[in-house]
TrEMBL record:
Keywords assigned: Ligase
Protein name: Probable cysteine--tRNA ligase, mitochondrial
Name of the gene this protein is made from: cars2
UniProt record, GO biological process: cysteinyl-tRNA aminoacylation; gonadotrophin-releasing hormone neuronal migration to the hypothalamus
SUPFAM superfamilies for this protein: Anticodon-binding domain of a subclass of class I aminoacyl-tRNA synthetases, Nucleotidylyl transferase
GO molecular function: ATP binding; cysteine-tRNA ligase activity; metal ion binding
Lineage of origin: Eukaryota, Metazoa, Chordata, Craniata, Vertebrata
Gene Ontology CC, one term: cytoplasm
Length: 566
């Protein structure tokens, strides 16, 4: 379905552009013109289209803006993918997971079909350098790390884009894109075979994301006309991969690949562009310049969303390969789960910097444990295994309704996941307050409200990509082993009931006279030993992921991930 929609978008976009040119009609909603833009300011043009009811912080305006889409219920979304020369680390994971959460919210909560395209940079200076160091071809190196990246994303439950696009498979399109920019008067070819974008040609608009000031830069740097000019095409060097072009042998510059590929799929206008804040300049700034020069339009991308950096606790620098201060995704998942990492990301705003530490991961684990404990107790209550005093049912129904309204409102306000999680945990807190065990119960039971709360929490966490019902993360989850645990807990319960019954009888019998004390001394010691053995079994099973809870003379159990934290 998504693939068909993407194809329809491409065809429809191209048709509308041709129809506009043929009829000579210029529409504000399309913003596309055959002549250079007449605007002299860097102002953002509010899109004409369909209001989603969501506000998002737009890096183009440095404030929250209503999210308006060109087509109803369809969001075109482009993101910069990895440069595949090394292992992906948690800094990458944080950005991709955060934007995956945003896309899930738009899709699941607001009914928007997100058409997401991501580029894989599989030719680059870093790839070439690493391939020389490892004595393998750049393409082989890139394919190895591309597959590893996709596996990492799958393990973190990041939904794949509609399509991955590789740079090396789009070289003809990139060359044609550059040719048109040159033809429009925004780029030049040097005697060395390089092609540079002429930033002076759009100096009145260059710097939409970052205010560059009035200084136009130095003249005569290398073979560039201006220090701010950037490469669209790089002349080849000895022993480097190259492609034939009108300007000689070479390869694409870094920024041109994204402009070309995004335009080849979505045409002259893009709803949303995302990436880490470190990409805002120069990468995204240069993408904007190239795309608007190519399409001769005033506004190519309507919304630019940027995620904050991930830092190691105590470090002011972002996690990066160049600083060698990173943790690979594979190493991280050896100690933690995808659910825990997603909770870690949810507890801060996607735009904020985030500290990675044992303490921050413990907070995420604690949040998940609290939810799990509530689910276990609520299920025990619903099944009749846990007796409680009468529940304030009307109060809980009201809390549930208020939480649903609040969470929806918070997520519509620039995807405020920390506040949403707080609201969910407040609901769980009030649910736990009502689940107080009692030995003697007078009054009706209220299982339905707890079922409704559980259903909502599971659903909203699923929107975030946190699967509370996922058994793949459970170390012991096969049907056979479940039955073994069931029999083990049942046997323990029978032994424990017997020991408790002896304990209840022993004091009464000991009052019958001194001559009977010796006879009852041995059973007293026996029941204490049995109770001690039952407790030992419960405690020993807990680190293995089997948790037994004694509720009077009854016992319940659940299986969770074995405690193997570092």
């Amino acid at each position: 379905m998504a693939m068909r929609l993407a194809s329809a978008l491409i065809l429809n976009s191209g048709f509308r552009i041709r129809r506009e040119i043929h009829s000579g009609v210029t529409k504000t909603s399309l913003l596309c013109r055959r002549t250079a833009c007449s605007r002299t300011e860097r102002g953002w043009v509010k899109p004409v289209g369909f209001d989603t009811g969501v506000t998002a912080y737009n890096s183009l305006t440095k404030k929250k803006e209503p999210l308006i889409l060109s087509q109803e219920k369809i969001a075109t979304w482009y993101s910069c993918g990895p440069t595949v020369y090394d292992h992906a680390h948690l800094g990458h994971a944080c950005s991709y997971v955060r934007f995956d959460i945003l896309q899930r919210i738009l899709s699941r909560l607001f009914g928007i079909n997100v058409i997401h395209v991501m580029v894989i940079t599989d030719i680059d200076d870093k790839i070439i350098q690493r391939s020389l160091e490892e004595n393998i071809s750049p393409i082989t190196l890139a394919r190895m790390h591309e597959e590893e990246f996709k596996k990492d994303m799958l393990a973190l439950r990041v939904l794949p884009p509609v399509v991955y696009m590789r740079v090396t498979e789009n070289i003809p399109q990139i060359i044609a894109f550059i040719e048109r920019i040159i033809g429009n008067g925004h780029a030049y070819v040097t005697s060395q075979g390089n092609v540079y974008f002429n930033t002076k040609s759009i100096s009145h608009r260059y710097g939409k994301l970052v205010n560059l000031g009035g200084n136009a830069g130095e003249q005569g740097v290398q073979d560039k006309e201006n220090s701010r000019d950037f490469a669209l095409w790089k002349a080849s060097k000895p022993f480097e991969p190259y492609w034939e072009s009108p300007w000689g042998q070479g390869r694409p510059g870094w920024h041109i690949e994204c402009s070309t590929i995004a335009s080849s799929v979505f045409g002259h206008q893009l709803d949303i562009h995302s990436g880490g804040i470190d990409l805002a300049f120069p990468h995204h700034e240069n993408e904007i310049a190239q795309s608007e020069a190519y399409h001769q339009c005033e506004q190519w991308g309507n919304y630019f969303l940027h995620s904050g950096h991930l830092h190691l606790k105590g470090s002011v620098e972002k996690m990066s390969k160049s600083l060698k201060n990173y943790v690979t995704i594979k190493d991280f998942l050896a100690s933690y789960t995808a659910n825990e990492f997603r909770l870690f990301c949810l507890l801060t705003k996607y735009r904020s910097a985030i500290d990675y530490s044992d303490a921050s991961m413990n907070e995420a684990q604690s949040t998940l444990s609290t939810i799990s404990a509530f689910f276990h107790n609520a299920q025990a209550y619903m099944q009749g295994h846990m007796q409680c005093q009468p529940v304030e049912e009307g109060f809980l129904w009201e809390r549930l309704s208020n939480t649903q309204t609040s969470v929806h409102k918070m997520l519509a306000d620039d995807f405020d996941t920390p506040k949403a999680v707080d609201a969910i945990m407040s609901l769980i807190y009030h649910g736990n307050c009502q689940l107080q065990p009692a030995t003697k119960v007078d009054g009706p039971r209220s299982p339905a409200v707890f079922g409704a709360i559980m259903s909502y929490v599971m659903e909203i966490m699923s929107v975030f990509g946190v699967d509370l019902s996922d058994k793949t993360e459970v170390q012991v989850s096969s049907g056979v082993l479940n039955n073994v645990v069931e029999e083990l807990v049942h046997f323990r319960s029978e032994v424990r009931k017997f020991a408790l019954s002896v304990e209840d009888q022993a004091p009464q019998e000991s009052q019958t006279g001194n001559k009977n004390q010796k006879r009852h001394h041995q059973p007293d010691r026996l029941h204490l030993r049995l109770l001690k053995a039952c407790d030992a079994l419960r405690n020993n099973l807990a680190p293995l992921g089997v948790h037994i809870k004694d509720r009077g003379t009854n016992s319940t159990w659940e299986i969770t991930k074995a405690e193997t934290r570092k």
